[in-house]
Amino acid sequence: MSGFLQVFYSIFSSILTALAIPNEIYKFGSSFYGMIALIPLFIAIHNSKSFNEAGLVTGLQIFVTHLLSSYWLGKFKDFAIFTLGASALAYFAFGFVFGNYIYAVFYYTEKSVGRKNGTPRSLEASSSSPLCQILGFASIWTIYEWFKSTGWLAYPWGTLFMSAYRWHTLKQICSITGTLGITYLFALFSATLAEFIILSGKLPFQLLNFEVKKTDEEAIFFGKIHFIRPHLKNYKCSTYTDILFSYRLTAIYCVTLFVISCTFGVYQYKIQPQVNKTLNVTIVQHNNSGNDPFYGSSNKNIRNSMIETDKGLKEFKNKNEKCDLVLWNESTLSNGGWFPEALENSYKHFPFASPTDKKMVKPFATYIEELGVPLLAGGPAHYENEDNALNAAILFGIDGKIVDFYGKSHLVPFAEEIPYGDTEFVQKTMEKLVGFSNGWTAGKKYVLFEIENSSGEKINFTTPVCFEDAFPDLCRNLYNMGSELFVNITNDSWSETSSSEYQHFVIASYRAIEHRTSMVRSCTSGYSVVINCNGDAIDDLPLFETTHKNVKVPIYKRSNTFYSKYGTWIMAPIFVFIVLFFIIKFLENIKEEHRLQKNIQKFYKQDSETEEDF
User: Fold this and answer.
1) Cα gap 582→470, rounded to integer Å
2) What distance in Å separates the CA atoms of residue 83 and residue 50, rounded to the nearest whole number?
3) Neighbouring residues of 122: CB distance < 8 A, sequence distance ≥ 6
4) How many CB atoms lie within 10 A of CB 455?
5) What are the C-alpha distances in Å from 78 to residues 8, 43, 432, 496?
6) How many other C-beta atoms lie within 10 A of the C-beta of residue 587?
């Protein structure tokens, strides 16, 4: 029965986490569910009888959360075996490891040193458990989400901070702590409530059976028998009051952090940064057409993009305004060859007129020459004298020529980038598994683009491609180049689910808060949106529609936030706390075990002497 209950706690925690993250029920997620999502997991780890059990329940929670919240990864073309299958198993393994670390906190703070001999928990070991367990749990879970969001295999989906989008004041702390500050707060809240539930059921029993009066007597527990031996020196047991004091101290700490964070958020809303420029942008959403959910019909996509662009420019003209930038998206120029050569070759003739539409369509190269407006679009490109293709954001100038391009530097593991993909064995294996044997090459440099708005003011912007807007460190590097605006082009249409589109948007929105800047997202089928410095959507386009929208993007006066300067500094004190905790508790455990064994030997020796005298 206990095993079944442990599984229930783990899966229940997964369901709450999946509901907290943007999903098909709650479009932008739920902060309420995010704050309580880890309560069942905390209880399950607390009730675990071994490191392996704690690892299994934690691994199961993360495994199920991944499947419930990122199920749409199964639509990632032929790569679902990696994007969903292999990743789910990997997260189970990661969860097992981190579950063991969390259990270690419980082990050192609540299990008695005589646990190996089958003795129960002692009140002495529980005196500091509320404080240590709550802070330890919150810290290690934050380390887990940092680990999940960092490095080549980084995937910051399925994280607690995703649930905070609609808590507008609280999420402003990202300009100081980054998103991991939210993770820490929500994990701390869950742990605090979980500990309250545990203590509510445990303390009355312990007080009734094991309370020790304030005398010189000291105690040691064997099974269910409570022996009071005045001669057992140096072994003290904690009282009900000690445990409650530890818990109250932690609860006050938790509430204080939330109050400070929300107060700071209110202040941030009150002192909005100065908008000193604006940029008139036509966002084009061509919406993939055809049988391929990744690229659709490239010919039709470009023609649709041209039609929507012309509509947008006409609308600006009717208002006596000028468009400063046209945004297409990641997959628009996918099948016409590699740039820059493609502009002088295939795109001199491509796209073709539709057989059912007699209206002439200009080739892309001719179209952008006559457009007279800078255009940013996604397509394959390569560096000079190199034969490897980049997934690039390409800026075309008012004369139709390529100004510059940025090659995506963080590629999707095992899909866009395959380890040792240049070896014959890997190529043959991938060809058999997914019918594909090579991918993109990672870009080698960041690029700062510059354009002028209709007032003649220069605006610098950077272009994280696809899911690069989910990575804080990468976007921080882009911002610190002098960027005044993030422009993201992406293609999530393959997911064919609204939750995928909104999840990506929510993660990206935190980049705007971290640097108090703006972001524009132009997506194949959505969620195309303008995001202000508070991380809020101020203009958007509907999902899965061929459409466009003219928007006026605010360009804020550049300033360096605490996060812009110091990045994920919050991980330093968290790591220091955890390392010091384990060192101190390990040494205390050795010392206490030695002292207990010494007292037990003394106890048996004196009992033997008493029996001999008798």
Assistant:
1) 32
2) 32
3) 112, 114, 220, 221, 237
4) 11
5) 33, 39, 11, 15
6) 10
Q: What is the dihedral of CA 307, 312, 314, 316, to 10 degrees?
A: -170
Residues that are catalytic? 330, 408, 466
Q: How many CB atoms lie within 10 A of CB 513?
A: 28
The residues facing 327 across adjacent strands are: 283, 376
pLDDT computed for residue 289 by the predictor: 54
- pLDDT, mean over the chain: 84
**CA of 313: how far to CAs of 139, 321, 369, 512, in Å?**
51, 9, 15, 27
Write out pLDDT tens, residues 234-244.
Answer: 334 455 677 78
Q: By three-state DSSP, how is residue 612 classified?
A: helix
Three-class secondary structure of residue 344 per DSSP: helix
Q: How far apart (Å, rounded) are the C-alpha atoms in residues 197 and 191?
A: 10
CA–CA separation, 408 vs 463, rounded Å? Answer: 9
* Conformation bin of residue 517: beta by default, left when phi > 0, alpha when psi is -120 to 50: beta
Q: Each residue of 420-465: pLDDT tens digit?
A: 555 656 556 655 555 554 578 899 999 999 999 999 999 999 999 9
DSSP annotation string for 25-62 = SSTT--HHHHHHTTHHHHHHHHH-SSHHHHHHHHHHHH
Residue range 39-48, pLDDT digits in tens = 999 999 999 9
Estimate the share of the chain in helix, then strand, then coil, as percent rounded to the nearest 5. 55, 15, 35
